[in-house]
Design brief:
By secondary structure, the protein is an alpha/beta fold. The protein contains 16 helices and 12 strands. The chain has a domain of 201 residues: DhaL domain (Serine Threonine Protein Phosphatase 5, Tetratricopeptide repeat, Alpha Horseshoe). GO terms for molecular function: ATP binding; glycerone kinase activity; triokinase activity. Catalyzes both the phosphorylation of dihydroxyacetone and of glyceraldehyde.
Amino acid sequence: MLPTEKHLLNDASTLVVDSLKGLAQLNPNVKFDEGQRVIYTPPSSNSSRVALLSGGGSGHEPAHAAFVGKGLLDAAVCGNIFASPNVAQIRRGVELVTGDKGALIVVMNYTGDALHFGLAAEQHRSAGKPGDVRVLLVQDDVAVGREQGTIVGRRGLAGTILVYKIASALSDKGGDLDAVEAVGKYVNSRIGTLGIGLEHCHVPGTRAGESHLEANQLELGMGIHNEAGTEKLELGAISSLVDKMLSKITDTTDSDRSFVPFKNDGSDEVVLLVNNLGAVSELELGGITGEAVKWLESKKIKTRRVLSGTYMTSLNMPGFSLSLLLLPSKSDSSSPYSSEQILEYLDAPASAPGWAWTSGQEPGVLGQKAEEVHQAKKGKEVDLAPTDSKAFLAAITRACKSIIEAEPELTKQDQIAGDGDAGLTLEAGAKAILKAIESGKVAGKNVVEDVGTLAEIVEDDMGGTSGALYSIFFAGLGKGLRDQASAGATTTTPEVWSKAAADALTTLYKYTRARPPSRTLVDPLEAFIESLPSKGLSGAAEDAQAAADKTKELVAKAGRGAYVNQEDLKKREVPDPGAWGIWRIVDGLRGYEAK
């Protein structure tokens, strides 16, 4: 299972420059030196501060070019995909932004970057140009142990963003090069990062790769250049994976892999960075963030800040990384910084396309009692009893079970004629209703209350268009029953049900333009309601079945089916799943008619 090998580009050889041109169009506050592929802020805006530079191979966007801006980087030097820029490029970037206060280059610890950025700094010094230039190599990866990394050291990962964000904030406050370098080194020494990948990424312009992971596997400790990880794990619950990752970052018992001085005694405070490596959905990333905060809380590690988003990618890699920045201990008098100072630098305003929103506050506490809200009083209570309470509940139960049984059939239909969720949506509503009957929430004593409860249940548990339509219908049905009770009805005779159902359809038609024949759920619903007074429940159900079956031949005029190839639907003789769901519901109701 490889990530997509299809890419949107003009030519793989021009992709980096094309992307940087687009970035310069997006952010008019930066300039672009196309010849040397440097994104930078004009010298006039950085002459009074220590300049911050970063860079490296492209393919990690938004890092680093999209972090050029106020409160962040003054320049980013961009190489080819996963390849370090050359010395001439870096030297140009240094020249463009370095003033009398000098510059700090913050780059990830990879051999090419270390050599090229280091050589550029040395050449700047030897040329006698204004301002000293120093290089800080970020090494935050905890996947590589001390023994394995004896010579090259650890890799730099997403923690790099935290290093230059904090160092840049101190520069903005007037710190000199010594101070800016010192805070960068301090932060670097207290960050641990670990990443996982569900697969390798694909580099544009290269041959299609081959999967090296099984469908149920992920790789722990993957690098951001397709480097293999340290171990393969079975894909399971995200809670277990987060536990394994954060345990490795905070562990101090393994002398080979313990890099950050956690005390694990309840006094530790951290900044959490959850980073999308390229192809993880925001939906999943939110769940990962929640689990990480929960894990830290369970270990009595106080989370002072949470940053979550796309900071440093590996092109389109389906994976993420977790970083922890261990803040200075309140009891450590030898620390040159306080936790409040570090947080002040982290929270300092920054403006660049790649800088994600941050709250500047500690995360909220889940589970706190919500403030009481005075709800509007319910409408006037009315009593309208079913003629047979047990039979009434039995009919609803049969209808729900009919829908649950039909889920595979409805799902298959919707995979052809819609977006594939019709069966699961209806099943969720049916299961919730059965649960409400079991708990007594739907009691079969007052149908006005029970129908109102059904409207609330489908609204909460079904969701989507179907949930809204069913909820509106039940709300209209409840109003119709209430009106008849107010007019003197005491039990639900067939006439009462027929009139209330007609009222409900009228209510539904206020909010949908679909009318039969439309290849939607209104086709069998209207057929059923129109036949109910004269044919009773069983006869009306048969008419609903005929109308639902007829949708196989219809051109969709409303709903998602209207966007699907109509000729293909006709050839495949697929009924509208929403219509078929109505038929299965009324079919389940058969066997019960109010007397």
